[in-house]
Amino acid sequence: MTWLGRAADASLDALVAPGFSRIGLAVRSALLPGFTVGDYPRIDGRTVVRRRPGIQCSLSRDGQTSALKFGARSLDLPSSLASTLEFIAGHRSFCADSLPGRLSGDAKLKLVKRLLRDGFLVLDDDEGSGES
């Protein structure tokens, strides 16, 4: 993995740490109905997830940061990962392994789990639907 890839993973770890939606702004992440901490171990890079029905999102860039905004939340990542956020915003369903960008497989999975916890994504009940 390149230095930039390691830096992206480190940035992701800092930004998607449980309980934080923005750098330095603590927000408790409530578990959603039907989704428990016990579900996390069964999620892997091939688990299909989809955007929660009815949730709206927007993307923005501000210098060195790209943000995925949804509801009252914002997930900020380095601009070098903008393609990852664009993919997430532009696809109804996907799996962590299909995310583009310089993140490691583990970092991609952390990002998907964070978006599940925050309510942007849900597990896809119809995993046969694939990516779109």
Word description of this protein:
- A 3-stranded antiparallel β-sheet has the order 7-3-8, covered by helices on one side. A 3-stranded antiparallel β-sheet has the order 4-5-6. It has a two-stranded antiparallel sheet with strand order 1-2.
- The model is unreliable at 1-5, 15-32 and 127-132 (pLDDT under 50).
- The protein has 132 residues and is of the alpha+beta class.
- It has helices spanning 3-15, 82-90, 105-117; strands at 20-22, 25-26, 48-51, 57-62, 65-70, 73-78, 93-95, 121-123.
- The longest helix has 13 residues, at 3-15.
- It has one domain: Outer Surface Protein A, domain 3 (Alpha-Beta Complex), CATH 3.90.930.
Record the SSE blueprint.
Blueprint: H1 3-15, E1 20-22, E2 25-26, E3 48-51, E4 57-62, E5 65-70, E6 73-78, H2 82-90, E7 93-95, H3 105-117, E8 121-123
Antiparallel strand pairs: 1-2, 3-7, 3-8, 4-5, 5-6
State the gist of this model.
With 132 residues, the protein is an alpha+beta fold.
SS-based class: alpha+beta
Arithmetic mean of pLDDT: 76
Q: Can you identify the CATH class?
A: Alpha Beta
**Biggest sheet descriptor:** 3 strands, antiparallel
Q: Give the SSE order as H and E letters.
A: HEEEEEEHEHE
CATH topology: Outer Surface Protein A, domain 3
